[in-house]
């Protein structure tokens, strides 16, 4: 365990009741999701109702729908609600651990359908490249613009040049800049090529802020979108793990339905076998608790704070990316992103980086208030001044 250097031996005697006290003490040493100084991760504190749902259904096996019928129903209801939100009320779907498992599962389903290669923007999440390695699928990398959004013509050029039977994977909510690939533009150029959408970050934000700002379309309303994934533990205010992968085509969905005769139930869903129902119950609870109105309020506020952060960063001499979703990559023309990142971490701000653009990344999740952003930017400005003055002195 990080921070522990003792050699751990398997205990001869059990600690009994002391175990929980020990764990409580250990847990107090690390932050929780949604910590005030957590600005990098695309995660926040789970809603209390979602956490409770998770705890209750942790003891149910989603892979045993005959014994745990309610859990199976919760999956179907969650899939139906999300399908309705994302333009296909008839979508079918499976529960996953999160974005990476969804990408792996979606690509597997496509490979089984005869697509042996996939076209992905250079800016796709690392898990996509990892999944292709696992599945031994060939990758063709498409160009992206300065915001890391796919260049649709580059996808068309690859489709024309390659003789492979390729699918396309696009992102709705890029990991480094938050931008949504223009899925409709890609569809219009290559309407016969199936598109998977990795909406791990944007899937549960974009539908709720669309009323107030213009965003690229990316869901099942576009004919060639055949699968779409989203994550409860990123933006559905659930605990980890909670992912859903939706399929808009029965044939693809059927590729992740497996036989399970020995359990007395004929069918088993997705790549894992035993799987906790907590992942689904927690997302079901968040959706039912908040409804569209609740999500609109929460992410409307995140966007207002993101817009505020963008304007203030500009006025302080930084070059932030414009927030399409509540995520900003902060660059400075004189300062290296990695130096900023480590200086910020040293004083307690947990930021991530946006390596493709050489900056630091902040995600304005529901626990991030305007006061937190102001305190963060004050520190950032101070650090930038320090670095500049020490560089001037050294010259
Ligand atoms: C766009 C995107 N897809 C997939 C993932 C992987 O998700 P997970 O960590 O839940 O596996 C991430 C993680 O940040 C992501 O940003």
Low-confidence runs of at least 5 consecutive residues:
none
Question: How many H/I helices?
Answer: 13
Shape: globular
Terminal residue distance: 43 Å
Please indicate the percent range of residues in DSSP E strands (runs of 2 or more): 5-15%
What does this structure look like?
With 395 residues, the chain is of the alpha/beta class. The protein has two domains: 241 residues, Type I PLP-dependent aspartate aminotransferase-like (Major domain) (Aspartate Aminotransferase, domain 2), CATH 3.40.640.10; 98 residues, Aspartate Aminotransferase, domain 1 (Alpha-Beta Complex). Helix content is 42%, strand content 15%. It contains 13 helices and 13 strands. α2 packs antiparallel against α11, α3 packs parallel to α11 and α11 packs across α13. It is globular and about 75 Å long. The mean pLDDT is 95. The structure holds pyridoxal-5'-phosphate (PLP). Pyridoxal-5'-phosphate binds next to α4.
Attribute tags:
395 residues, alpha/beta, Aspartate Aminotransferase, domain 2, four-stranded antiparallel beta sheet, 42% helix, binds pyridoxal-5'-phosphate
Question: What's the quick description here?
Answer:
The chain has 395 residues and is α/β, with parallel strands linked by helices.
Secondary-structure map:
Blueprint: H1 18-27, H2 48-57, H3 69-85, E1 92-96, H4 99-112, E2 117-121, H5 126-135, E3 138-142, H6 152-161, E4 166-171, H7 183-189, E5 195-198, H8 206-209, E6 225-231, H9 232-235, E7 243-247, H10 250-254, E8 257-259, E9 267-269, H11 278-315, E10 319-320, E11 327-331, H12 337-346, E12 352-354, E13 359-363, H13 370-394
Parallel strand pairs: 2-3, 2-4, 4-5, 5-6
Antiparallel strand pairs: 1-7, 6-7, 8-9, 10-11, 11-13, 12-13
Helix pairs in contact: 2-11, 3-11, 4-5, 6-7, 11-13
The structure holds pyridoxal-5'-phosphate.
Pyridoxal-5'-phosphate (PLP) binds next to helix 4.
């Amino acid at each position: 365990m990080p921070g522990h250097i003792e050699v751990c031996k398997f205990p001869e005697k059990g600690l009994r009741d002391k175990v929980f006290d020990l764990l409580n003490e250990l847990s107090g040493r690390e932050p929780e999701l949604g910590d005030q100084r957590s600005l990098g991760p695309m995660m926040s504190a789970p809603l209390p109702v979602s956490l409770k749902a998770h705890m209750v259904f942790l003891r149910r096996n989603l892979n045993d729908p005959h014994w745990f019928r309610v859990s199976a129903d919760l999956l179907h209801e969650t899939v139906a609600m999300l399908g309705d939100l994302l333009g296909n009320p008839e979508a079918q779907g499976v529960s996953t651990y999160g974005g990476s498992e969804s990408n792996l599962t979606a690509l597997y389903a496509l490979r089984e359908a005869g697509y042996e290669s996939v076209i992905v923007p250079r800016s796709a999440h690392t898990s996509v490249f990892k999944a292709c390695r696992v599945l031994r699928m060939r990758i063709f990398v498409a160009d992206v613009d300065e915001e890391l959004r796919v260049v649709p013509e580059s996808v068309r050029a690859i489709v024309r040049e390659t003789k492979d039977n390729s699918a396309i994977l696009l992102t709705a909510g890029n990991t480094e800049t938050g931008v949504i690939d223009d899925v409709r533009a890609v569809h219009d150029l290559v309407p016969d090529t199936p598109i998977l959408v990795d909406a791990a970050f944007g899937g549960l934000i974009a539908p709720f802020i669309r009323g107030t700002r213009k965003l690229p379309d990316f869901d099942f309303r576009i004919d060639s979108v055949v699968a779409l994934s989203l994550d409860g533990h990123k933006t559905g205010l659930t605990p980890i793990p909670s992912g859903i992968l939706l399929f808009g085509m029965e044939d693809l969905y059927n590729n992740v339905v497996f036989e399970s005769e020995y359990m007395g139930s004929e069918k088993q869903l997705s790549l894992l076998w035993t799987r906790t129902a907590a992942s689904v119950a927690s997302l079901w609870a968040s959706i039912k608790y908040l409804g569209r109105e609740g999500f609109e309020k929460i992410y409307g506020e995140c966007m207002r704070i993101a817009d505020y952060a963008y304007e203030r960063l500009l006025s302080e001499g930084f070059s932030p990316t414009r927030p399409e979703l509540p995520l900003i990559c902060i660059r400075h023309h004189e300062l290296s992103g990695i130096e900023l990142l480590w200086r910020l971490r040293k004083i307690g701000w947990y930021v991530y980086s946006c390596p493709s653009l050489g900056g630091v990344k902040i995600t304005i999740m529901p626990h991030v208030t305007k006061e937190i952003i102001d305190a963060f930017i004050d520190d950032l400005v101070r650090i930038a001044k320090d670095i500049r003055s020490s560089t001037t002195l050294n010259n």
